[in-house]
Amino acid sequence: MAQKQNTQLEDPALQQRLAEWLQWDQNETTKAEIARLLAENDVEQLKSRLLTRLAFGTAGLRGSMGPGFAHMNDLVIIQTSQGLAKYLLQSIPTIKDSGVVIGFDNRHNSARFAQLTAAVFLSQSIPVFLYSKICPTPFVPFAVLQLRCSAGVMVTASHNPKEDNGYKVYWENGAQITAPHDKGIAAAILENMAPWAESWSFKKDHPLLKDPLKDMLAAYKDKLKTMCHYGAINAATPVKFVYTPMHGVGQDYIMDGLSSFQLKPFVSVELQKNPDPDFPTVKYPNPEEGKSALDLAVAAAEKSGARVILANDPDADRLALAEKLESGTWKIFSGNEIGTLLGWWMWHSFEESKKDNIKPGDCYMIASTVSSKMLRSLATIEGFHFEETLTGFKWIANRADVLRKEGKTVLFGFEEAIGFMCGDFVLDKDGVSACLIAAEMTAWLETKGLTIQQQLEKLFEKYGYHITNNSYFLCYEADVIEAMFERLRNYEGTKSYPKTCGKFHVKHVRDLTAGFDDSQKDNKPILPVSKSSQMITFTFEEGIVATLRTSGTEPKIKYYTEICGKPGKETREELEQRLNDLVTSLVEEYFQPEKNNIRPKAD
User: Fold this and answer.
1) Domain boundary among 410, 442, 463
2) Domain that holds residue 114
3) How many CB atoms lie within 10 A of CB 131?
């Protein structure tokens, strides 16, 4: 058996990758781990770690930490930063004047990864604005715009498990990178694999290194003040708020931002308020997962008499919202419901601010295509514009950037995965501003004798009920996912999509993987096509839209369904029943969970 393993170890590709790793890696821990696997002839582990590479894409990097090119570690960070630096030097001639912004969260190794990233840029005489302590993800794109930098890097894996980390890249417009920059950076990484002489050496006293924290905090708070419209109401509100940063970076930044809105201190969740990279009190550090992630916040609210919970994910770019109902139960609002409420509030605030020089027809709201179309209904009646983009906040942010440059006013953007962009001073989802704005909205509603849930019902009554039913299945087998979607594309023969789903009838199909949309005259979709991910949308005669798609960062096959009712025509109960019937058929006929051995989201 040992001889067989040694023979496998003679694979030229593996030998080369192994030699490169042992030559290049200067981290004693990860280098020793690869050396141990070599000494033990653990060929399978060596192949797994060295022969595949963590792919760089429009989301940057995200993966588990550990030794090898397939994981997040010092060497991979240096190689990625070298490729990014070379690409920026080629693409933006002024980068040695403008520089880059670098931030990091509180995960294991985040600070070190940020310093190594800084070392790479400094080695090329590129100025670096490196935050001196952990910061929310939105503080990086904010600083890119404020400081007029050429790019930004945030070291974070957002709400992923504690074993993961990531590397998120922003372009000079303050939005996440899109094509062709992703492919250009990926190619440059492969051309700059050997570490440069100074890449391993971070110098805190480097003359081109600056800390933007103090200035950006002040500038961010000034922007927050422009979003506050009811300071006196906020200062006097009897509403008590509980806040949790989910063991992440948000606590200090939220508490510091309260003064911009004249809000009283929030009640903190004591066991979750301090940064902890092990996220000890939650199975998943993701407030989107529902009540299980908010158990301690609910307990703190019950103890303190608070009726509203505000929660950020660990890097504070997402916001969760919950309210205690009159029945005594807690309502956790979905991303679509929060998007509806905040979208309405941003429109209300715009109207109240009486900006006579800005017409409603020059105002825009944006949502991803799998998010609720409630804002489209609101826009139709109120006279502003609504647009949808591909899934992923990079599309929302880059579209907002285009609109801004055309002289338009972008009031709001959101995606159903509890990501919200209030205004356009940060071109990414921002859980800090969204949290404080949601608190002001709640305080104002209190003066009208309304709860958050009651206001949501009022919006549904005025603009029509928009009921959603979204969830996902876990699937770790790429071939199973591929087969599922190919079956839908060849459902009744080659290139034939389903015509029914249970008792429901398919009206239109849009396939953004294959580039097909039969609602368009030329059968070509308006939204961009991407063969790298699976995404099919079915529009049914019965007034329901259902989208099936894969996740770009998690082993999930997601479904998003929505039924849009007409104001005053149908009850919530009627619409919910119709939608639930469709979802049952969708799961049974399109997902086939037993046949495909995939399991649903755990409650």
Assistant:
1) 463
2) 52-211
3) 21
Domain CATH for 448? 3.40.120.10
Q: Cα 559 to chain center, whole Å? A: 17
Measured at the CA of 197, the angle between CA 193 and CA 201, to 5 degrees, comes to: 105
Helix axes 431-447, 213-227, angle to 10 degrees: 30
Instruction: Compute the average pLDDT of residues 1-16.
Output: 68
Structural domain count of the chain: 3
Residues 438 and 521 both lie in one domain: no
Phi, psi of 29 (to 5 degrees): -70, -50
Q: Dihedral sign, CA of 202, 204, 208, 211?
A: positive
Do you find a cis peptide bond into 161, omega within 30 degrees of 0? no
Indicate the average pLDDT of the chain. 95
For residue 5, the model assigns a pLDDT of 45
What is the Cα–Cα distance from 64 to 19, expressed in whole angstroms?
22
Task: Give the residue from 347, 366, 343, 373 showing the smallest Cα distance to 358.
Answer: 347
DSSP-derived 3-state class of residue 235: helix
Q: So which residues are the catalytic ones? A: 158
Reported as a single tens digit per residue, the pLDDT across 298-329 is: 999 999 999 999 999 999 999 999 999 999 99
Looking at the fold, whether 207 and 122 belong to one and the same domain comes out as yes
Task: Give me Rg for the CA atoms of the chain.
Answer: 25
Give 360: exposed, middle or buried? Use CB within 10 Å, 0-12, 13-18, 19+: middle
Task: Please check whether residue 42 lies inside any domain of the structure.
Answer: no
499 in a structural domain: yes
pTM (2 d.p.): 0.93
Residue-level pLDDT at 356: 66
C-alpha span between 342 and 4 (Å, rounded)? 62
Tell me: the pLDDT tens digits for 159-213? 999 999 999 999 999 999 999 999 999 999 999 999 999 999 999 999 999 999 9
Burial letters 557-568, b for 16+ CB under 10 A, else e: bbbbbbbbbeee
Average pLDDT over residues 119-132: 98
277-299 pLDDT, tens per residue? 999 999 889 998 767 899 999 99
Shared domain for 412 and 490, answered yes or no, is no
Is residue 111 a part of any domain in this protein?
yes
**Count of positions (residues) in the chain:** 603
Going 302 to 303 to 305 to 307, the CA torsion angle's sign is negative
Residue 584, domain CATH: 3.30.310.50
Phi and psi, residue 97, nearest 5°: -100, -40
Q: Which of 463, 481, 503 is the last residue of a domain?
A: 463
Token code pair at residue 163 = 């074993």
The pLDDT confidence band at residue 58, using thresholds 50, 70 and 90, is confident
Separation CA 366–CA 386 (nearest Å): 6
Q: What tokens appear for 201 in the block?
A: 């050496």
Q: Do 409 and 262 share a structural domain? A: yes
Q: 363-368 and 385-389: which strand pairing?
A: parallel
Same domain? 456 vs 471: no
Q: Are residues 504 and 591 in the same domain?
A: yes
Is the CB of residue 56 less than 8 Å from the CB of residue 182?
yes
- In this structure, are 503 and 448 located in the same domain? no
Same domain, 70 and 153: yes
| Proportion of the chain above pLDDT 90, given as a percent | 90
Phi, psi (rounded to 5 degrees) for 289: -70, -10
